[in-house]
Design a protein that fits this description.
This protein is of the alpha/beta class. It has seven helices and seven strands. Strands 1, 2, 3, 4, 5, 6 and 7 form a seven-stranded mixed beta sheet that branches.
Length: 235
């Protein structure tokens, strides 16, 4: 009987202290993670504009609505609800949409439609000529092309140092185990809710913001970056 009582106390002690020990280990351990890959460097900076909108020193989601913004209405709404609304409070975050001047009325009507009383201070419509739109787009690493109207449903992440971010290896763990050839994720299709929500918003943007927070605190380990080697091997 005495042995049984002692065993019961031992089990209860283990059940009590095990979660506590786990929490302590988690608090003391360093938060390791893989930074979001740099998939292309030296993205073209925006030309001078009256609102002084720039990519440098901002974390930008870059979008192209082209001459027919309404063709991208679903993509725009998904981007606003699944990415912008979540990240608009972070320092230096912005969405920049490039369009030709003739799309202004339609673009502003679309933006008003998706606004829904939300704060869109960090969502910029930038009107420029076709030459600059193509120049900036062609500087990006992309698996899609602009339409004849200069638009696409895909968006691109550009960091504060004019580097495009994404995934050099977007395979699942199962695909890696079965030796599926490497494929990347360089642009995010805003009509694909799962890609936008589960990959871009829930993972990639979150990891990138954490990287910048760690850099500010001096906790970011540059040796963890896979950038240069992966760039060379995947160009």
């Amino acid at each position: 009987m005495q042995v049984s009582k002692q065993s019961r106390y031992l089990i209860l002690s283990i059940l009590f202290f095990l979660p506590v020990a786990f929490i302590i280990v988690m608090l003391l351990s360093k938060d390791n993670y893989n930074p979001l890959d740099i998939v292309k460097e030296n993205i073209t900076e925006l030309a001078n504009n009256k609102n002084n909108i720039q990519l440098k020193d901002h974390l930008t989601v870059l979008s192209f609505w082209g001459k027919k913004p309404n063709d991208h209405a679903t993509a725009a709404l998904n981007l606003k609800e699944l990415v912008y609304d979540i990240n608009k409070g972070f320092k230096s975050f912005q969405v920049v949409v490039l369009l030709p001047p003739e799309a202004k009325l339609e673009a502003e009507a679309l933006l008003k439609e998706i606004k829904s009383y939300e704060d869109l201070r960090f969502w910029h419509l930038l009107y420029t000529d076709e030459r600059e739109i193509r120049s900036i787009f062609n500087a990006l690493r992309s698996e899609v092309q602009l339409t004849s109207n200069l638009g696409t449903n895909s968006v691109y992440i550009v960091d504060r140092d004019l580097n495009q971010r994404g995934r050099i290896d977007d395979r699942t763990e199962k695909e890696k185990e079965t030796k599926v050839p490497i494929y990347g994720l360089f642009d995010y299709d805003c009509t694909q809710v799962s890609e936008l929500k589960n990959k871009m918003a829930a993972e990639d943007m979150r990891v990138l913001f954490k990287e910048y927070r760690d850099k500010r605190k001096g906790d970011f380990d540059e040796s963890n970056k896979r950038r240069e080697k992966d760039l060379i091997n995947n160009e």
